[in-house]
Amino acid sequence: MVLTALEYDLLTRGPKYVINDTRTAKKRRGGELDAAREKIKNKLIRKGSLGGRSMMAAFFKDLEKALIEYQREKSSFKRKQNLQKLHLVKRLNFRIKQTNTILRKTDKSKVFYLGKSSDYKDKVQKYMIKTNAYEVIGDKSPLQDLVVKTNHFLRRLWQEKRITQKHVEEMSVDPVTAELAHLYFLPKPYKPNTPLRPILAGIKSSPMKISKFLDRHLRPLFDVMTKGSSITGGIYLVKRLRKWAQFKLTNDTIFVTIDVSDLYTMVPQKGGLEAIRKMLEILK
Fold this sequence. Notes:
Helix content is about 60%, strand content about 10%. By secondary structure, it is mainly α. It has a domain at about 5-100. Strand 1 and strand 2 (about 110-115) form a beta hairpin.
């Protein structure tokens, strides 16, 4: 798909670009006029340039009239621009559908990605087969069943006196606001062949509160155990390298970075639980 100059200019503004809303601007105009009037009034008072009340009232009446006229002309111009951009967006959407093209935000950048729908779907399919960690559920949603099972699990832990009533209230799932976690992908154009980064959106999913609870309690323990072997930030890394360089850095030193493919789907649940158990035993 070949973009026109106007389409290219629109997309280069990035995913966060939003066309101005003239209705919102109109509502905001009253407050802006009041603020401008007050600033001008205070400045004239400081300079001693204000005359009597009648002169002051006439001045601000003329000022407000001029500002309203300016805002009206500005809004009219913006309205024409926005109509043109909206027409451009509709035409671009139509062309994307007609040419089987996808338009996506990209990973770790502020630009769009344009590519063939067939290539995108093929990469998604290969990822699903390779990891075997997700499935397409179609129209049948297991959300309510997950909510019921999660809340039942918490009540059972409370009955067995493993957690308190406060913990149950903290981690219980609201069936009204709960949402099913879903998987989507962001292209990574900074890597060869533009692979896809899988994103699991589960901020309102049923196990999220339990996950946050566990992270809050396990994270400090993990930080203690990995204090000497993990990097907490760029400044910390530089300090460690400087200290290390005094004794071990030579001309033959080689720095190596490792990018683990599909890390989260490669960690087995039983293995993760076993690692946590061993960690807790060490810290007893």
